[in-house]
UniProtKB/TrEMBL annotation:
Membrane-related topology note: Multi-pass membrane protein
One family name in Pfam for this protein: Na_Ca_ex
Protein name: Ca2+:H+ antiporter
Organism encoding this protein: Kibdelosporangium banguiense
Transmembrane annotation, as ranges: 7-26, 32-52, 64-88, 100-121, 133-153, 165-184, 216-235, 241-266, 287-310, 316-337, 344-362
Record flagged with keyword DNA damage: no
């Protein structure tokens, strides 16, 4: 109980500290030591934001909780992408593509693989609802193809780019499919996204812990907003350090997008792992696929709007290597999800695909 209270104090103090750092450093050239401190505060604000989103999520229950977490993480991701793109520099035109695709690979292979691995270690077989998970995965595959694969093959504009009309269509289609999924997840087929036991029966998702009070949930909602504002502002201060570090290491500029995705999805990964350890594999998969879907369904429309005032091209089309990895992920994910049961093998295969993606990101 003492540890829980201490962690609760930590999640209150960090957003306040992050806001203070934002006010003190806004618009200034920062020395490396100060920038390192801001980066630590930024990471703490990300963790605090997702913690408070999790408190709100626990109050409203599944599958609404996974939705709250996914949207919170996506707001952070969009803020970081737009901040770095506004700063310009080499690779800014492909930053949105690199980050969104990295998020898809991390969620559909990394988080899914970890969730299935932990679930299978606990019960020998990880059990989940194939109807809900399959629908979510199909939506992720469709939005990813519309937004990141088609630009490579369209001919109205040279290069892996959309014309303004095509970009508007992709943005509207992504947002529409995401909204349709949310309606299915929260209203029409909510039972498809609730945890199952070994016999395939729906578990009561509230029995594992007492939900917070309405007052606690409202406080967390307010601190969540404070944390997100701090993340947006402090990201602008550390963005030069991220780019400089990648260049200094001799990695391709696409690694910047991978770093952003790893940063914003790390707390989401921890939440999914905790759910899998509580034998809530379905909740873990909701977090994984919900984050992937929100990453594309909300980021692409936001970038489309931002492109109105952003200078330079917006490259969204994937290259051949990434398209092969995406196709393999879709095939493997489909074979994993259809039975509604998975073993250690499926979890290991997905983690192997993530490892391939990360290796090829630094050594293309």
């Amino acid at each position: 109980m003492t540890a829980i209270r201490a962690f609760s104090r930590w999640t209150v103090l960090v957003p306040v500290l992050a806001e203070a750092v934002l006010l003190l450093t806004w618009g200034r050239d920062l020395p490396m030591v100060v920038m390192a401190f801001v980066a630590l505060v930024l990471a703490g604000a990300v963790l605090a934001a997702v913690h408070h989103a999790e408190v709100v999520a626990h109050r409203v229950g599944e599958p609404y909780g996974s939705l709250v977490l996914a949207v919170a993480v996506t707001v952070i991701e969009v803020a970081l992408i737009v901040t770095l793109m506004i700063g310009g520099g080499a690779g800014a035109e492909s930053l949105a593509r690199d980050t969104v695709f990295a998020a898809v690979m991390i969620t559909c292979n990394g988080i899914m693989g970890l969730s299935l691995l932990i679930g299978a270690l606990r019960r020998r077989i990880a059990v989940f609802n194939s109807e809900g998970t399959g629908g979510a995965f199909a939506t992720v595959a469709t939005i990813t193809t519309l937004s990141l694969v088609l630009p490579t093959f369209t001919t109205s504009k040279p290069g892996p780019e959309f014309t303004p009309a095509q970009l508007a269509f992709a943005a509207i289609a992504s947002l529409g499919l995401y909204a349709l999924f949310v309606a299915m997840q929260t209203v029409r087929h909510r039972d498809y996204f609730l945890p199952l036991n070994d016999e395939g029966e729906i578990l009561d998702d509230e029995v594992h812990a007492e939900p917070p009070t309405s007052r606690a949930a409202l406080i967390s909602l307010g601190l969540l907003m404070v944390s997100l504002i701090a993340v947006v502002g402090n990201a602008k201060a550390v963005s030069p350090a991220i780019e400089a570090g990648v260049v200094a290491a001799g990695f391709p500029l696409a690694v910047v997008g991978v770093v952003i995705a790893l940063l914003v999805l790390a707390p989401e990964t921890l939440a999914a792992v905790r759910a899998a350890r509580r034998d809530r594999v379905q909740t873990s998969l909701n977090l994984a696929l919900g984050s992937a879907m929100a990453s594309i369904g909300l980021t692409i429309p936001a970038i489309a709007i931002a492109s109105i005032w952003l200078d330079g091209p917006l490259m969204l089309g994937l290259g051949p290597t990434h398209m092969v990895l995406l196709a393999l992920t879709v095939v493997t994910g489909t074979l994993t999800i259809v039975p509604g049961r998975a073993t250690l093998l499926q979890g290991g295969v997905h983690l192997g695909l993530l490892a391939a993606f990360l290796f090829l990101a630094v050594s293309p």
